[in-house]
């Protein structure tokens, strides 16, 4: 895969998405974040390029779901591509993060969401990194984990809203990097 993680977001959440992308990159993940990947998409058919990125070129997709996100055609196309990928692999490859009470009917209403209003980008990055490490081994032909010492196992998430606010000082450094102990 070209990307470990792709971030789908509405422009109104650019600041949150940018902070999350920066933290994930510092953790060693290869991240697709459109403003930082202009050389990849310039001159391309945008619909085709984003479809390939979210469906074929990314192991995981972070969905920053807001009312603005739900109201935009581009983000709905990215979501559809990510859901197509999610339905074609044997692990959950989407990480939905919601702002306010935003929900999209395209996602199962029982799916686990992370509440962005209660979780900062460093806390979300810790979850994304764990999800990346938990991609099942039988997908090995598609991936090359950045940390070969990571134990990769299948660990599906429960169907609830996840509130990850709290003290992460034991494993998130001051610059948002994960500290393994």
CATH topology: Rossmann fold
**Which structural category fits the helices and strands?**
alpha/beta
Overall geometry comes to globular
Q: At the fourth CATH level, what is the homologous superfamily?
A: Toll/interleukin-1 receptor homology (TIR) domain
What percentage of amino acids are in beta strands? Answer: 5-15%
User: How would you spell out the order of helices and strands?
Assistant: EHEHHEHHEEHE
Q: Give the overall average pLDDT.
A: 79
Strand order of the largest sheet: 2-1-3-4-5-6
Percentage of residues assigned to helices: 25-40%
Summarize it.
By secondary structure, the protein is an alpha/beta fold.
Overview of the structural elements:
This protein is of the alpha/beta class. The chain is built from 6 helices and 6 strands, in the order βαβααβααββαβ. The protein has a 6-stranded parallel beta sheet, sandwiched between helices. β1, α1 (14-26) and β2 form a beta-alpha-beta unit. The radius of gyration is 15 Å and the shape is globular.
């Amino acid at each position: 895969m070209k990307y470990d993680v792709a971030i789908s977001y509405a422009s109104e959440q650019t600041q949150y998405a940018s902070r999350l992308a920066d933290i994930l990159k510092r953790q060693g993940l290869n991240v697709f974040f459109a403003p930082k990947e202009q050389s990849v998409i310039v001159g391309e058919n945008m619909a085709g390029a984003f479809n390939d990125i979210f469906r074929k070129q990314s192991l995981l997709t972070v969905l920053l779901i807001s009312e603005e996100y739900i109201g935009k055609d581009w983000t709905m196309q990215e979501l559809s591509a990510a859901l197509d990928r999610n339905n074609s692999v044997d692990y959950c490859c989407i990480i939905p993060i919601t702002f306010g009470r935003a929900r999209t009917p395209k996602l199962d209403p029982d799916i686990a969401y992370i509440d962005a209003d209660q979780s900062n980008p460093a806390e979300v990055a810790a979850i994304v990194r764990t999800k990346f490490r938990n991609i099942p081994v039988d997908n090995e032909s598609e991936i090359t984990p950045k940390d070969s010492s990571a134990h990769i196992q299948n660990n599906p998430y429960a169907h609830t809203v996840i509130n990850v606010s709290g003290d992460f000082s034991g494993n998130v450094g001051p610059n948002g990097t994960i500290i393994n102990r």
